Amino acid sequence: MVYILLTLLIFMTLISFVIYNRDILSPTVIAYSMFCLSTLIAVLMAKEWELVLSPITVITIFIGLFFFGLGEFTVRWALNRKYGAIKIPFETNNSNTNNKELLILFRYTFLISIGMLAFLIVYFKKIYAISLLGGNEFGYHGMLEYSRTVMLQQGVTPGTLLNQIFKVCKAIAYVYLFAILYNKIYLNIKKLRISYYIPIILFLITALLSTSRTHFTQFTVYALIVGFILYYKKYAHISIRNKKIIKAGITGVILFLTLFSILGYSTGRTQSFGALYGVAYYIGGSIPALDNYLNNPPSESGYFGSETLYIYYNSLNSYLNFDAPSFRVNLETINGSNIASNVYTAFRRYIQDYGYIGMCIIVYILGVIYSIAYQSIKLKNKVGFSLIMYAYFFYPIVEFVIEERFFIDIISISTIIEIISMYGFYNLLVRKSCEKNISTKKLNKDFHNYNKMHCTLIQR
Length: 460
Prior knowledge:
The protein is mainly alpha-helical and 460 residues long. Helices cover 71% and strands 1% of the residues.
């Protein structure tokens, strides 16, 4: 059945690709492609994992992806009625004569870098202290492995304040990354501003200390989506765009998997079976795990949304003494003959909490939401904060085949803080800096013209 599933997914991906005018950035095409990749790995590992999928797994995946694609098709159909064609093209601005380089004042970058460096030092000390709680006897070498174990098993965190500052640093890094990609890809400015990379590097080091690979997944997805859409905006020829995007996408995936493996080794998660197997387990293990769940479903908790809304139950317990069990983000690990996994694709949580009908409704709504956001980006002639937001919240689609991220990560109070932080720093660093640079240049130009005219009058 795993071969049937792979064939079906490839067919669905190709159909969507053709229907949407070879739009490789379509949320549906990307979601289907990720399922193809995961299933392909499952096929390659089928013999070692002794994988035999049941028909219910194939049907469940097909239905879930069909309703997600139906959500995007609904939006495109509505646009078809308004614009007269379902294949909505990107609005492009090929001249770029009216676009200005995104210049961030150096003094802003300097102060931000100092602040992020200070936070990095404090965060490093906190993570090391957490590792000592787990019995770390290897000093800094064993810091990440032991701290991750303590945080997962005992629920210890760096603290609310440090977590919120981490989100602010994340917002800053994403604004700087947008400025780099906008200048490089959209405006084709070859001048390298090294100072722009400092906040990004400091954030990535901090993200490494957090021991969570989700930060690197989101960062990679954000960079690729922003870069690809800017490239689409700049060039109108589809065949050229897709070739470049495929090459860049492959490069991005290779870099991500390299970082993924390094982090896996540093936290002790892939030392027992190697980097390649670690990647295979993470990307392809969700398919057999979902099959195991569908054939051996656990008993219901009795609480509505216990697997997707657990963060709210935990908050009620902590702040209002609500009489409910504390739910954990990590699901139980299935132990097959040759595989152990605790990721089940997003479908697991939807089915467990809301049933099959609820799953279909949720994925359909997600298809509508992401398609509306994507089409709005395509129809805008200029890009800015809306593109940052779209790319920032796109990673749940990429991780759809691995884990549910929309309810867990997006719908939360932390997201509001991240949006406010990103919008504030975008206006401060990009808009205000550009206005000041433009004003300074205009003042210098006026002063130069005045001196020139004054000298001419003197000569006369």
